[in-house]
Amino acid sequence: MPEALKRIIDMIHYLPGIGEKTAAKLAFFLLKANKTYVANFAKALSDLHEKVRECEVCHGMTDVEHPTCPICSDVRRDDTMICVVEDYLDMLSIDRTGVFRGRYHVLGGVISPIQWTTPDKLNYDSLFARILENPSISEIILAMNPNIEGEATALYAIGHMPREVRISRLSKWLPHAGSIEYADEITLLSAFKGRG
After folding, report:
1. pTM of the model
2. Residue 124 and residue 135 share a domain
3. Where would I find the beta strands (DSSP E) of the chain?
4. CA 147, CA 132: separation in Å to the nearest integer?
5. Residue 104, strand partner residues
6. Cβ of 151: how many Cβ atoms within 10 Å?
7. Is residue 190 within 8 Å of residue 171, measured between CB atoms?
8. Tens digits of per-residue pLDDT, 2-49?
9. Are residues 99 and 86 part of one domain?
């Protein structure tokens, strides 16, 4: 097998959830695809780190020329609620349902001693600063995945809240050890409506 092809298969196989056979299939697809498509694909990949940045408010993703994401820039959103999520994909999944019209805060992971992820490596400080700086915030929704790491992450937030606010959780309707990112819209709608 040519080295260039082997290298592409290895790089695709490195992606999460891609097995060796799927990686080989995708590599052969790229090899046989139109050269313009492959060039555009390569350009999109190289632009990824150059044209995407973290939102200065919620830590979601935005275009490099904008300091805040479209959600944080939307003046029609409810400023009294912040939904705290583990990662950006959870934020997108929840927002896609349309059930939540407040603000978000992306922690950037979960507390996990096994992965050496401690609270200081997550975006707690900016969350607590937002809560202190904006007295209109009255509810924090902790939308962590219902597993051990999600529970530890939520408990840390609850224990370090800088002032009194209503704290609610979503896990009631999510399957144990499930993932918000992969939950269907009906499950997420029920989780939001039944939060407590």
Report:
1. 0.80
2. yes
3. 52-54, 61-63, 81-85, 103-106, 139-143, 166-169
4. 29
5. 83
6. 17
7. no
8. 899 999 999 999 999 999 999 999 999 999 999 999 999 999 999 999
9. yes
